[in-house]
Amino acid sequence: MKLKLTECPELPELEVEIRYAKLTSQVQSLAKKIAQSEKYLHGEEGGRQYRILVDDIFYIESMERKTFIYTDRAIFRAEQKLYQLLDMLQGTDFVQVSKSCIVNINVIDSMQSLANSRLQATLANGEKVNVSRTFLPQIKAAFTGKEND
């Protein structure tokens, strides 16, 4: 892959062009990464509202009818339900791993098989998230990068 950066002071905003001979999973992953780099969710912590960069999110979990956004620095409470956040994250590197959890595929360090055809994902911060049987194909495809090749 060749990377070419060109400074153009007359451009009103950042412009990114990706040229490729064939649309591969590598190209799609790169496009996703660029698109998600400026995407934010909103959350509340300690009575204050925050904009949370999607790239900074490790996972999102729903517990007892409340939704929480986990980053490496803090845990935020989201007003939206898990399915609403999943819709908002379409086209990003987030994948649902259970009925109550969505994970940023970029923060998964490793995966290990568990009993009952489940997996356990270890995140970059050392936390472990269980993947239920229903969501195994999606997480495996996303983790190995073999979604649409």
Keywords:
3 helices, globular, alpha+beta, 10 strands, 3-stranded antiparallel β-sheet, 149 residues, OB fold (Dihydrolipoamide Acetyltransferase, E2P), 5-stranded antiparallel β-sheet
What would you note in describing this structure?
- The protein is α+β, with helices and mostly antiparallel strands and 149 residues long.
- It has one domain (40-144): OB fold (Dihydrolipoamide Acetyltransferase, E2P) (Beta Barrel), CATH 2.40.50.
- Helix content is 19%, strand content 37%.
- The protein has three helices and ten strands.
- The strands form three sheets. A five-stranded antiparallel sheet has the order 5-4-3-7-6, covered by helices on one side. It has a three-stranded antiparallel sheet with strand order 8-9-10, with helices on one face. It has a two-stranded antiparallel sheet with strand order 1-2.
- A hairpin with a 2-residue loop joins strand 1 (40-45) and strand 2.
- The protein is globular, with a radius of gyration of 17 Å.
